[in-house]
Amino acid sequence: MSRNIFPERDGPIRIAVETAYVPEQSEPARKRYVFAYTITISNEGELPTQLLTRHWVITDAAGKVQEVRGEGVVGEQPRLEPGDSFRYTSGAVLETPLGTMQGTYHMVTDEGTAFEAPIAPFRLSMPHVLH
What we know:
Blueprint: E1 3-10, E2 13-21, E3 33-43, E4 49-60, E5 65-71, E6 79-80, E7 85-94, E8 98-109, E9 114-125
Antiparallel strand pairs: 1-2, 2-3, 3-7, 4-5, 4-6, 4-8, 8-9
C-alpha cells in the first residue's frame, strides 16, 4: 500500500490527508482503481466548531468528474473543541490509476459563524504511475 501525505491549513481548521491505493479491492483490467484516504481535521482556532456538510470534487486522469455532497463525514458531524482533532478513513473508486480530490467542509462555530474549510487538491495514484 503506497501512502502520500498532504497537510493543509486555512483559517482555524487544519486538514491533513493521507492516501493509499487498495490493490486487493482494485481490478485494473476492469478499469476499477480503489483508493483509501484518511483525513485528520484539527481545530486550531479559539472556538468549538462543528462539521456540518462535505463537498468533494473527484477527477480521474481521463477528466471524468464526480461531485459528492452530503451531511457530515462517515455518518458523523463531529464537534471539535479548540485543540481537538477528528480522524476518519473513507474511499474513492476511479476508472484510471491516477486522479485528484479536493473539496470543502461546511463548518459552524458554537457562536453561529458559518465558514468553509477548504481541502486542497490531493493526488490519488497507483504505485509507480508517477516518478
